[in-house]
Specification:
Chain lengths: 113, 112
């Protein structure tokens, strides 16, 4: 849905653990999804994307899974490092004919050494 | 590549003053976006341009906000007059296609 941002859910993990961040999207017509990482005081940084004709895509230490049946997106980070601590946003392109991303609420990832 | 460049990085002004935020997109990108981020509302799209032409400005809060893109390498977002509720971080982003957007570092605006 639309960004709310009042209270961010937080995921706390230990360094070396695998992290899974989840996102529910609202529009079944959305055909493109992106994960962004935002560190304090910086702009959102592109991590990985996936199109609706795929259900999995892998990058370096990250994997995105897409379940269109339940409109769910997840970001898996392998061997989480303290530098991964940030707020993670999913974004969907609602395929309205315009180039318009709608961002999720965001999840704060805290990685302890 | 230098990435998206925004200036100033921080702006503190008094209510009623005019504020102009600036953005230089990544060279070769044909889409440019202005977003606003607040704790209450998260990240909101204000307006976006394609080939320097405004395409969707439905997110612009009110007439006090205006945006221009006089050429492919420069855009401005202006608030006149500014109000305390405009305090936020304003991001500019650009993309080559209709998909992946790359964000600038943002301008933190404080209106007193």
């Amino acid at each position: 849905g639309e960004s709310v941002g009042l209270h961010l859910p937080t995921l706390s993990v230990q360094e070396g653990d695998n992290s899974i961040i989840n996102c529910a999207y609202s529009n079944s017509a959305s055909d493109y999804f992106i994960w962004y990482k935002q560190e304090s005081g910086k702009g959102p940084q592109f991590i990985i994307d996936i199109r609706s004709n795929m259900d999995k895509r892998q990058g370096q230490r990250v994997t995105v899974l897409l379940n269109k049946t339940v409109k769910h997106l997840s970001l898996q980070i392998a061997a989480t490092q303290p530098g991964d601590s940030a707020v993670y946003f999913c974004a969907e392109n609602r395929n309205t004919g315009f180039q318009k991303l709608v961002f999720g609420t965001g999840t704060r990832l805290l990685v302890s050494p | 590549d230098a990435g998206v460049i925004q200036s100033p990085r921080h702006e503190v002004t008094e209510m009623g003053q005019e504020v102009t935020l600036r953005c230089k997109p990544i060279s070769g990108h044909d889409y440019l976006f202005w977003y606003r981020q607040t704790m209450m509302r998260g990240l909101e799209l204000l307006i976006y341009f394609n080939n320097n032409v405004p395409i969707d400005d439905s997110g612009m809060p009110e007439d006090r906000f205006s945006a221009k893109m006089p050429n492919a390498s420069f855009s401005t977002l202006k608030i006149q007059p500014s109000e305390p509720r405009d305090s936020a971080v304003y991001f500019c982003a650009s993309s080559r296609s209709a998909d992946t957007q790359y964000f600038g570092p943002g301008t933190r605006l404080t209106v007193l």
